[in-house]
Amino acid sequence: MRIKKYIFNKVIEITIIFFIILTILFFLFRLSPGTPISKMVDPTFTLEDQNLLIEQLGLDKPALEQYFIYLKNFCTGNLGFSFHYGEPVSKIILERLPWTILLFTTSTILAAFVGVMLGKIAAWKKGSAIDNFLSISALISHTLFIPWFALLILWFLGFKVGWFPLGGTLSPEIWITEPSLFVKLLDLIHHMFLPLMTLFFIHVGSYLLLMRSSMLGVLKEDYIITAKAKGLTEKSIRNKHAAKNAALPVITSVGLSLAFSINGGALTEQIFTWPGIGRELIFAVSNNDYPLAQACFLLIAGVVLVANLIVDLLYAYMDPRITY
Amino acid sequence: MTLLKVENLSVGYKTKKGLLNAVNNISFTLEQGKSLGFVGESGCGKTTIGMTLMGLLPENANILQGDIYFNGSNLAHFNDEKWRNFRGKEISMIFQAAMNAMNPVIRVDEQVMEAIEVHNPDMPRNEIHTKVKKLFNMVEIPENRLKDYPHQYSGGMKQRAIIAMALACNPKLIIADEPTTALDAIVQDQILKEIKEIKKGLNTSIIFISHDIAVVADVCEDICVMYGGQIVEKGKREEVFKYPRHPYTKTLLASYLNLDSDKDIKVPEIQKPPNLITLTGGCNFSASCICKSKNCINHAPEWVNLSPTHQAFCCEETLGKDKND
Known about the structure:
In chain A, 76% of the residues lie in helices and 0% in strands. Chain A is mostly helical. Chain A folds into 2 domains: 2-75, no CATH class; 92-318, Orthogonal Bundle (MetI-like fold), CATH 1.10.3720.10. In chain A, helix 4 (89-124) runs antiparallel to helix 10, helix 4 (89-124) runs parallel beside helix 13 (290-318) and helix 9 packs antiparallel against helix 10. The termini of chain A are close together. The model of chain A has no long low-confidence stretch (mean pLDDT 85). By secondary structure, chain B is α/β, with parallel strands linked by helices. Chain B has a domain at 246-325. Chain B contains 11 helices and 12 strands. Chain B has helices spanning 46-54, 80-86, 108-119, 125-138, 155-167, 185-202, 213-219, 237-242, 247-254, 294-298, 316-324; strands at residues 2-15, 18-31, 35-39, 61-70, 73-74, 91-94, 173-177, 205-210, 222-227, 230-236, 302-307, 310-314. Chain B has an 8-stranded mixed β-sheet with strand order 6-7-8-3-9-10-12-11, with helices on both faces. In chain B, strand 1 (2-15) and strand 2 (18-31) form a beta hairpin. Classes of the chains: A mainly alpha, B alpha/beta. At the A-B interface, helix 9 and helix 10 of A face helix 2 and helix 3 of B.
């Protein structure tokens, strides 16, 4: 079972990298300007009170000692308490994470799916009007500046036309009446629509372009001529012989962007007041909330590392030439 | 019975520098159950002929003139749909296995199966399976290798699988484009035997395209020697190889070393092949020809009958002069 050995080795590798990242993160935050208490203290606080606060947070100890305490706690599953919220970091993360996963997994998968479909068509009809239209649209979508586009879509569809709510995830006035699951779901989709559309449009272009260029490469391969020589239908050549090979690089891209979507959507989450990890991350960093910020970054690191492994395994599944 | 009759076929590629006449006014016929070989150097138009007969010319290529009669229908006037139903069923192609001729992510048996499926949509699944097994039996691939992926095959096995693929719908004509190039001598010999057996057993006609004279001489009864997009000499295998008459055929044969040939035999130097975009109208081979006269540069050569089955595209003067030396 070479695959098991491969996974085992990979997991060890990932663990080592993870702890290196953890170490770097820990000291990076200690080196960053400002102190965590600056956002908590009142100008009326005496120096003694301030020192007491620092002591309570454990920040008076030498950095190395702090590091080992953190390491020990981390290994026992304790991520510490948020300086700002005063709540366990794990609790905050678990609260925010589902929202981020919901929004970004949906948008990434949707964008990848549509991008692959359209990229396939664009490559197949290379040089036609459809191809030109799709490629140019994809380029525009790919180069859009996220906050600008998000604000524009929010202003127009949320404010000017008023079809969609300006932010949040749910309407309390609907949920308080304890409606059916369907109504709840509808309300969620209603709230999710604008951020989802924003993320979809930003990402669909890059998947389309990636698929298109990959597909154009595959269409030059000899086995496409073989498939034609067999008299196969265009659809069969396009979908079975070309697209399956062409989609391989897209998988890598999807896997990695799923990982990065945890934080990559910080701006989108901020604009649509979506209570996810990205927003928390910005908040934690700007408030020097060390435990929370570290945990957010570690989460990203962990997801990226694991996603990489999954992409590797998925590749082996999709491409029989790859074995581990 | 004449299976294939090509008349005055010209194929051109549109390039940035102008129209490239890859195949220029060629004619040949092929009988049912016979084999015809095309030999010539790279770029002489061999593969373009094969691709034209399969309707697989690239987008920038066009049939400029001529007719291709196959079993009564003119392929030169086929539309896409007609080609699709025709390819693989009436004419199929054996590609070079060294190229990526098989899809790397689809199982080998599936790739043969779909060729049968597309032309026999009503055939039940288990019948297709049986047929695939029979085909693999014929090309001597063990049954337990059917479900493998192409990369798990050796070069020879890949070539066999490609032959099985070409035979899937019992085509009347098989075009083999350099099927043994890049295979070692033993495997090459096995593959050639296989092709000959298929030809005999199924009464299939074969067009064999290769730069390797030995291979063509082994498989084909009739030979066309090509140079610069034209057939320069055609005839029975014995006639062309034993009594070559066209200066290019002679050069080609002379450059083919063999153990007991005189070491000091002088191979005439061949200039670079003619520019097929700016053809002069004269003989394409005139630049390299050892016996050219002034006339050859400006005057088109003509077909000279050397025997009822043997012709050379040259001029009486050269052929006559040549006879004497």
